[in-house]
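To illustrate the input format used throughout this study, we show a single complete record. The first block contains the structure-token representation of the backbone; no residue identities are included at this stage. The design step must infer an amino acid for every position from geometry alone.
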């Protein structure tokens, strides 16, 4: 029985256990699902004040009445408990409930205390909070009640979360200790470094002074570099600064008096340099010999500290920077020296260092270090320099001084077109003025004329009314600085026509360029051609409004104008690819980059870095057509007062004078004012002559009209009208007699014989 019973019992238990397990699983799942649902519902009714239902309202009100705002934590604690139960299986519900109650009651008590202390506080501790707080307050006062409540809260939190306080405190202490130790070590290291640096500096200074007294002594400086001061002697003491005179000049600049007559070229005088300001610099250029010796030692020691062997072989003090020439020891890579440029700048406390590696034509690297005191380079000192005065160039330009102090000049006809770009206030306008002044000081208005475009109406208006002004679209009586974009486009387009006509004239005179033509003109008693310099201050403003037209004109002028004596100088403060487009860059080979904000801007202007490290105020990089690398130049300075004085001097001699332009001549009728082109009567005579003689030549026309100038012009008009052509490779004119006969008949039909049929051929 017992056996049977046992057997039965055993069998039943197995089955039951399986069933029981399944049932238990379902119940367990149901239990947890319900528990989570309950928690979620509690959370919802506590935290959100919508659709609570009657029970929800009551439960929420219940918790709020007893616990105040701490009731928000109830569902969170329950969630925490459920998650812990699932994770750890055995969580003591009793401990949890006690922990939760202690935490909630103490939080409620703290809340009541805060409400009590800070009157009108929004938070509420509920009735339990009030009970606990006032009980404690009765024993230890308000602040004490809050503090004790917090202490009780810690106990509750400990029960709930079983925080290992001791090990946590230990861990925090360790962290704090570690932080303190690393701070302490870093401080000690920094102190040592500062002390070492100070010691090194004082040692270097001592060695330099000792070396000065006793040359052969062991020196920290490995070398005694050659100091080249090319301009020291031409820096003169300043003339007493005449404030009154300067302010008077300024006033005069504001009231420009326009000239009433045209300038007479026979008595025309170039402005004297005496009206320009003298250099204000006194003494030597750049740092003193002692300062150079110290900087040399510091430079060499800094290189040594990076384990780079190099010697300073030469020092060239310039007006704004001083160039130290460093010759690396055999086996030392240039790239290693270039790589530590910033560290050298730091050691030398320099604002910025530009490295020229290597210096073209030398076995050395150039370190350009800014001087403590920058010296101003005046336009006067460059205009007076033999390099400028003895220049064989047609249009010599005074740029300023190179980094080594030598005067920097160029020839505008060789540039042949120039782009000036830099950030605002970097010195673009001053650079532009220096270029204009260089020409005004060397060339008469019949030699060089300016087509000035200034959309900003700021800088170039100072030159209004000077006899050098030119605008092919208007008469010389109405010419002015062009300030509107559409006017600028029209002028440039007309200039393109002028350029094409000049090319034709040169073909007729069988010369290749303006120099050749002017020589030919001299030999043949003809009028010479004048050079045209197009100045555009702020290209960006024009590009914004009339991009396509401007770009097209600039491209056409830049490609062909050099031979006919037209040169472009464009200026912009926006060195972006939208303004300095590929077309513009390709056609303006010479560039001046002033200080720019970024490396990208420098690349846009020069296709290389460097302009971003410039110092501003006329500090520039000049890249000429034949230069492999840009040269650093401190631009010459010319003041507004000086410009006004020069412009006044020029205006006093008369205003602009140049041939009339196409459209107006056709309206006015008659032969052009300058004797160019041909009237209908002259054409009738010329065509009759060709028909009679059955040939045409310059000499034939000259013999008839009495001047080779007239003969050239009539010849060019005949060619343009298609009466005569010159086949390629031939020197003889081909005469189209049928066309001449028709043309002659048409001319005779028209009355007067002075009808303006023919376009002016421009010089
Ligand atoms: N060569 C120079 N030597 C000394 N100072 C200069 C030189 N060039 C410019 N500066 C100083 O920099 C200032 C700004 O120069 P400038 O007006 O030519 O700058 P900018 O680039 O044309 O500015 P913006 O784009 O605003 O017209 C000048 O007022 C002058 O004080």
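Output of the design step:
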């Amino acid at each position: 029985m017992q056996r049977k019973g046992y057997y039965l019992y055993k069998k039943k238990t197995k089955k039951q256990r399986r069933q029981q397990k399944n049932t238990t699983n379902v119940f367990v799942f149901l239990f947890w699902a319900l528990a989570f649902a309950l928690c979620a519902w509690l959370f919802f009714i506590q935290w959100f004040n919508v659709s609570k239902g009657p029970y929800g309202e009551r439960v929420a009100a219940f918790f709020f009445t007893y616990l105040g705002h701490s009731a928000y934590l109830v569902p969170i604690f329950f969630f925490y408990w459920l998650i812990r139960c699932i994770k750890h299986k055995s969580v003591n519900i009793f401990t949890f409930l006690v922990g939760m109650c202690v935490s909630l009651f103490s939080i409620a008590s703290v809340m009541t205390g805060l409400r009590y202390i800070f009157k009108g506080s929004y938070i509420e501790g509920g009735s339990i909070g009030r009970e606990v707080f006032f009980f404690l307050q009765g024993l230890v006062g308000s602040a004490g009640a809050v503090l004790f409540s917090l202490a009780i809260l810690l106990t509750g939190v400990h029960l709930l979360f079983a925080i290992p306080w001791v090990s946590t405190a230990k861990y925090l202490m360790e962290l704090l200790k570690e932080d303190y130790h690393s701070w302490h070590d870093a401080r000690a290291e920094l102190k040592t470094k500062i002390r070492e640096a100070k010691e090194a500096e004082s040692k270097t200074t001592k060695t330099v002074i000792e070396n000065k007294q006793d040359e052969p002594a062991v020196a920290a400086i490995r070398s005694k570099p050659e100091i080249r001061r090319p301009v020291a002697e031409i820096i003169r003491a300043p003339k007493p600064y005449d404030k009154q005179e300067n302010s008077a000049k300024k006033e005069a600049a504001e009231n420009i008096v326009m000239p009433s007559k045209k300038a007479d070229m026979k008595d025309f005088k170039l402005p004297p340099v005496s009206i320009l300001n003298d250099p204000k610099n006194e003494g030597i250029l750049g740092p003193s010999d002692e300062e150079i010796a110290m900087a040399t030692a510091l430079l060499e020691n800094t290189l040594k500290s990076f384990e780079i062997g190099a010697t300073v072989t030469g020092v060239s003090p310039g007006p704004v920077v001083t160039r130290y020439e460093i010759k690396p020891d055999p086996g030392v890579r240039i790239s290693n020296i270039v790589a530590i440029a910033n560290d050298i700048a730091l050691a030398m406390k320099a604002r910025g260092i530009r490295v020229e590696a290597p210096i073209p034509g030398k076995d050395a690297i150039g370190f350009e270090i800014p001087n403590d005191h920058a010296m101003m380079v005046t336009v006067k000192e460059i205009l007076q320099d033999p390099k400028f005065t003895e220049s064989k160039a047609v249009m010599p330009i005074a740029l300023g001084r190179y980094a080594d102090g030598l005067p920097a000049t160029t020839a505008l006809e060789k540039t042949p077109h120039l782009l000036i770009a830099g950030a605002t206030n970097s010195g673009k306008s001053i650079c532009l003025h220096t270029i204009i002044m260089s020409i005004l000081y060397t060339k008469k208005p019949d030699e060089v004329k300016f087509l000035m475009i200034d959309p900003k109406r700021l800088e170039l208006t100072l030159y209004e009314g000077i006899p050098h002004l030119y605008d092919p679209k208007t008469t010389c009586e109405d010419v002015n600085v062009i300030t509107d974009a559409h006017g600028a486009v029209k002028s440039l387009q007309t200039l393109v026509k002028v350029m094409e006509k000049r090319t034709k004239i040169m073909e007729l005179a069988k010369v290749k360029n303006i120099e050749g033509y002017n020589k030919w003109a001299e030999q043949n008693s003809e009028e010479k051609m004048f050079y045209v310099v197009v100045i555009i201050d702020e290209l960006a403003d024009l590009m914004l409004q009339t991009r396509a037209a401007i770009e097209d004109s600039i491209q056409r002028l830049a490609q062909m104008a050099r031979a006919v004596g037209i040169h472009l100088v464009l200026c912009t403060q926006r060195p972006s690819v939208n303004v300095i487009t590929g077309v513009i860059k390709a056609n303006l080979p010479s560039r001046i980059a002033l200080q720019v904000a970024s490396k990208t801007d420098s690349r846009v202007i020069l296709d290389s870095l460097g302009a971003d490290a410039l110092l501003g105020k006329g500090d520039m990089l000049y890249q000429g057509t034949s230069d492999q690398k840009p040269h650093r130049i401190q631009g010459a300075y010319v003041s507004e007062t000086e410009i006004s004085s020069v412009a006044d001097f020029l205006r006093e001699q008369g205003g602009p004078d140049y041939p009339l332009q196409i459209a107006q001549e056709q309206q006015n009728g008659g032969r052009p004012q300058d004797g160019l082109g041909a009237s209908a009567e002259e054409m009738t005579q010329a065509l009759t002559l060709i028909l009679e003689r059955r040939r045409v030549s310059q000499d034939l026309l000259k013999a008839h009209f009495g001047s080779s100038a007239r003969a050239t012009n009539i010849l060019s008009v005949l060619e343009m009208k298609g009466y005569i052509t010159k086949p390629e490779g031939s020197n003889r004119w081909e005469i189209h007699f049928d066309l001449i006969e028709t043309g002659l008949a048409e001319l005779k039909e028209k009355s007067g014989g002075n009808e303006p049929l023919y376009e002016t051929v421009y010089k």
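Structural context for interpreting the output: The longest helix spans residues 165-213. The first strand starts at residue 226 and ends at 227.
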